[in-house]
Amino acid sequence: MSASTAIGMVSTSLRDLLLAEMQLTPAVEVTLLSPDEAGVARRVNLYLYRVDENEYLANGDSTTGPGNQLVPPPLSLNLTYLVTVYAQNDTVLGNVPAHEILGEVMRVLRQHSPIPRAHLHAGLRDAGERLQMVCRKPDPEELSRIWSTFAKPYRLSVLYQVSCVQLDLPRTPPEFVPKRIRRVGVPAVTTVVAPPVIDDMTPVRGLAGTTVTFSGRHLAGRLISVAVAGRVLLDRHDAADTLPVPLPDDLSEGTYEIRAAVSPELVRTFLFEVTS
Fold first, then answer.
1. What is the pLDDT of residue 92?
2. Which of 86, 83, 59, 84 is nearest to 73 (CA)?
3. How far is Cα 232 from Cα 208, in angstroms, rounded to an integer?
4. Is residue 75 helix, strand or coil?
5. Mean pLDDT throughout 158-179?
6. Cα separations in angstroms, 259 against 33, 140, 150, 251, 263
7. Which residue intervals define the domain Pvc16 N-terminal in the entry (predicted)?
8. If we measure between CA atoms, which residue out of 85, 105, 108, 81 comes closest to residue 95?
9. 4, 80, 162, 208: least surrounded by Cβ within 10 Å?
């Protein structure tokens, strides 16, 4: 895998390969220009025409890096180059010199695929991927569309695909592989906290101002609230399972709902009759 600048490194590697391996006299220059940019008369031009994500490697799995860190799969790209030859026409043979240059270019790219390490840019030599070069057959109108885009007359050209270039993705935010369980056995059973219970309220009738007592289980240490007729009589933590609560002494005769709540787990309502 390579840095995000690897696309430019591939273009440079292709140029270096052709300059080193083409056996033409006189020597032919290799440029990396757009088709509408001027260059020397006798040359080969490599123009990066399109970049596509490799559909077979697009959904690769993450791998495990140092410290059990998950490393996302690289961005895998196919690069398509428009390879165009330029040469002065011969007065008798016409554009045969361009044909000769194109044949030599195609020989080199076929014979030296994948790109040999000696011709790779220094930033690609330890990347690990093999850069295969394949001559791609364009659809009948593709080359015409390319040249019409630049408003230039058609030049003898072929398309070459280089695959695949893998770009490293950043490891942020970090993801970590959970540690494996190394010991199998019966898990320890911890004490379960029992829920609170209010069992009863006594007495259920009496004079205004009577003290009623709530009794229950597992009430100690919990926040308990008692209310009657919209008036809060108690709202505190208690330390026991029995709770005496005096009723207001100004209650008139009748039956009242007394609401006892152990927030938020339990709410109970009791009836108390105020007598004379």
1. 80
2. 59
3. 16
4. strand
5. 76
6. 86, 86, 85, 16, 12
7. 10-174
8. 85
9. 4
Quick check: 144 and 151 in contact, CB under 8 A? no
* 3-class DSSP state of 185: coil
**Model confidence band, residue 119 (pLDDT cutoffs 50, 70, 90):** very high
Whether residue 174 has pLDDT greater than 60: no
**Cβ atoms of residues 82 and 161 within 8 Å:** no
Fold adopted by 197-274: Immunoglobulin-like (2.60.40)
What would the mean pLDDT of 215-242 be, rounded to a whole number?
Answer: 84
Could you give the count of Cα atoms lying within 13 Å of 226 in the half-sphere of its Cβ?
Answer: 22
In terms of Cα–Cα distance, which of 230, 225, 224 is closest to 256?
230
> DSSP for 211-262?
EEEEEEES-TTSEEEEEETTEEEEEEE-SSSEEEEEPPTTPPSEEEEEEEEE
CB-based contact 84:155 (threshold 8 Å)? yes
Q: Is the pLDDT of residue 89 over 80?
A: yes
- Reading the block at residue 221, the tokens are 């240490």
Structure tokens at 226: 């008692």
What confidence tens digit (pLDDT) does each residue in 214-227 have?
888 888 878 888 89
Domain 6-167, what architecture? 2-Layer Sandwich (3.30)
Tokens representing 268 are 């109970």
Asked which of 142-146, 172-176, 208-212 is least confident by mean pLDDT, the reply is 172-176
State the average pLDDT for the chain.
85
Token pair for 208? 């205004």
* Plot region of 128 (φ>0 → left; ψ -120 to 50 → alpha; else → beta): left
Q: Phi/psi of residue 63, each to 5°?
A: -115, 165
Token readout for 20 is 């080193």
Cα–Cα dist 266/194, whole Å: 12
